[in-house]
Amino acid sequence: MTKDLTAYRQPTRVSFNGGWCVRPKIGFFSELRPGQATPESVCLPHDALVGAARVRSDNGSNTGYVPGGAFAYSKEFDVPPEWNGRHVAVDFEGVYRDAMIFVNDDFAAQRPYGYSGFRVDMTPYLRFGERNVIRVEARAHEDSRWYSGAGIYRDVWLTVAGAVHLDYAGVQITTPHLDADLGVAAVATTLLNSGARPRTVRVRVEILNQERALVAQSEAPVTVLPTEPAVLRQRLTVSSPLLWDVNDPNLYTAVTHVLDGDDELELSTTAFGFRTLQLDTAHGLRLNGRTLKLRGACVHHDNGPLGAATIRRAEERRIELLKKAGFNAIRSSHNPLSSAMLDACDRLGLLVIDEAFDVWTESKSSFDYSLRFADWWERDVEAMVLKDGNHPSVIMYSIGNEIPETGNALGAAWGRRIAEKIRQLDPTRFITNGLNPMVSVIHRLKEAGRNMEGGINSAMNQMGDMMKDIATSGLVTDSTEESFAVLDVAGLNYGESRYELDRELFPNRLIVGTETFPAKIKDNWAAIEQHPHLIGDFTWTGWDYLGEAGIGRVNYADEGPQSFGAPFPWRTAWCGDIDITGHRRPVSYFREIVFGLRTEPYIAVHPPENFTREARPTQWSFSDALATWDWNVTEGTPILVEVYSAAPEVELQINGESAGVRPAGPGNGFKATFETEFAVGEVTAIARNADGSQERWSLSTPEGVPTLRVRTDRTNIEATDGDLAYVEITLEDEEGRTFRQGTERLSVVVEGEGVLQGIGNGNPQTQDSFRSNFCNTHEGRALAVLRPTGPGEIIMTVSGAGQSTATTVTAISPAPLAAAVALS
């Protein structure tokens, strides 16, 4: 039997993203300044800082030189008389930060942590039959080590249900029994009663497969008292369940109906999957019985030109491109992922280590979450687990990142509290913690006279091989033993020197490289493939991000002393495999070759102006080489070419003539280097395998006059607040080769049923604004992001390089069930 979901009554939980206004927050006794009285109309999710003017400051590199601010959001909405006696709530998936919620100017709720979802019961504050106002205040001020953004940056939902209603995240599903013949879905439904008398309702659960066929159902009564939640547990059996796997992410949908006779009080849909997880030192991590090594990427929360706004399509696109680049896992760094990104991981098949905190009781920034941790950590852990519990992509929780307290006994006790709380809430997943050996003993290093001027990251960048000595010291071994004993998997940040040591000292310890330097993947991956106790590697980072500006840049000796943060106008970290526009950098292809996922060689060329300069990369650098043969130099200019290949031998040819043969493959770090001379035309790498087969890859110089071209990722999108169209703008010749030298100033005009949500390029040190209608190209490329405002056509016209071109995107009304998230 196939279920048509569009035939169901509309869900009682609908988008509350539209119709908001935002302005700088004004103190109750403060005077208005010019411009503050006029609010800006916005559609959520929204980042109030992404368009802020960047300013030079001493420590501004942490946030990409974007200052903080305080903001007030407001929304007017009608409350019809028939809502009287019903439960009316608004769910915030994330407000950064120190959110204060007011309904009709009455205080209704507070949430200090910027990454937790929470529900606000508006019922006591509403005026039925009238226009009502909700106000949300948020702020960001020296509370983050990276660009945090500010405001209501995640989705907001309105729930209007009966007096008997589902609790927040009130449907939780586990799969306690699974074999080839059947799978059991254990559905726990939590109900609340805001009325004055006990009520008995019925809960019907229907399980649908990916084809919307009904495969199981159950119905039972439950009596809900006014003073306590009622949990109904139903076990539904699914015959021959299709497994969720990274290569075949089969999902099921549980449709939960809360019924009072013929009246449906509430309707909820929940996606979940059947899969098994196992962990031991003999086989490592097993998914559905198969050993799987985690090819991991750390990811920050921002979406580049959109700032911190977690618009659903932006989150989905990042997962699409990360998986296409060869990753099978991500680690959220350093806060819980958005629901939108977890949904994308479920659909596309990417595993997740979801991380709770970057700080516990000891601060890393002047006004960070450590000030609220002791009072709020338990509620924030609960929020994370409630959000994650139904997602098959989530395999592990991380309780922290580089927490200084992990090097002492009382700090280990904090770790135990957090870990045991998670295990009480969700015993089906594993627990890790990203320990940095140096951070765990930082206080003792300072006591011993070690110079930590500039901070731990700066010290790590300067110490080089000395980090290995510290990481493998008895001091670290003894200081971290209890903190590691709290965990199922020991997470090591920049601690790969302990991989072999811990195999001997702690034979039952499983290890994941929770954070590693990009250039060390070749050595790290060889160890991971060799040893079952090593289950994966997570590079810092898979996707470039705003803030920690320039930590991955390549400096040169003639530029003077190197610091951890780069000077203004640096904006991004520049250590990602993929830049903020979604363009893969050479390190991404190098990693793909190391993983064994690419057989073709890859060519990356160092800028010829740097040929005689001494490079001084940071620990987070890979190379300043680019995949281009377009250089503004005369023929015969010396140039350095790198070829990445798993083949034992590589030949480089320039216009058909050999420029030499060099060894490559694992024994030579998967890289062959050629000092040669530039010549207009074509450079080709020929990888010769041991069996005599060959693989080729080439770069060519573009010819003629640059042509302005636009490519849209999708020409049809949904007219909802969660969809976007990404338009890539390039300067190309007639053969599609990109002109990477020089820059062109582009202007963009958007007409019709949409707006320009953001515009930018991958340049890590530009002064261009994401909120402008203008943008320079970087390496011949730029990116525009369109957001629909309703059904109809969106026409975008791009002008630059003396040309103009247009593209059209059609925003289509969604199907009836999806209409619940249509624009307000």
Largest sheet: 8 strands, parallel, barrel
CATH superfamily of the largest domain: Glycosidases
Question: Helix content range of the residues, please?
Answer: 10-25%
CATH class of the largest domain, please?
Alpha Beta
Mind telling me the C-alpha Rg?
A: 27 Å
Runs in which pLDDT lies below 50 for 5 or more consecutive residues are 817-824
The CATH architecture of the largest domain is: Alpha-Beta Barrel
Distance between the termini: 34 Å
Look at the helices and sheets and give the structural class.
mainly beta
Count all strands and give the number.
Answer: 46
Number of helices: 12
Overall geometric form: globular
Domain Glycosyl hydrolases family 2 sugar binding: 70-158
Domain Glycoside hydrolase family: 708-807
Family: Belongs to the glycosyl hydrolase 2 family.
Domain DUF4982: 636-692
Any overview of this molecule?
Belongs to the glycosyl hydrolase 2 family. InterPro entries: Beta-gal/glucu_dom_sf, DUF4982, Galactose-bd-like_sf, GH, GH2_Domain-Containing, Glyco_hydro2_dom5, Glyco_hydro_2, Glyco_hydro_2_cat. Pfam families: DUF4982, Glyco_hydro2_C5, Glyco_hydro_2, Glyco_hydro_2_C, Glyco_hydro_2_N. This protein is mainly beta and 824 residues long. The chain folds into four domains: 109 residues, Immunoglobulins (Immunoglobulin-like, Sandwich); 312 residues, TIM Barrel; 96 residues, Immunoglobulins (Immunoglobulin-like), CATH 2.60.40.10; 115 residues, Immunoglobulins (Immunoglobulin-like), CATH 2.60.40.10. Helix content is 15%, strand content 37%. The strands form eleven sheets. It has an eight-stranded parallel beta barrel, surrounded by four helices. Strands 3-2-4-9-6-7 form a six-stranded antiparallel beta sheet, with no helix packed on it. It has a five-stranded mixed beta sheet with strand order 39-46-45-41-43, with no helix packed on it. A hairpin with a 3-residue loop joins strand 11 and strand 12. The longest helix is centred in the middle third of the chain and has 19 residues. It is globular. The relative contact order is 0.09.
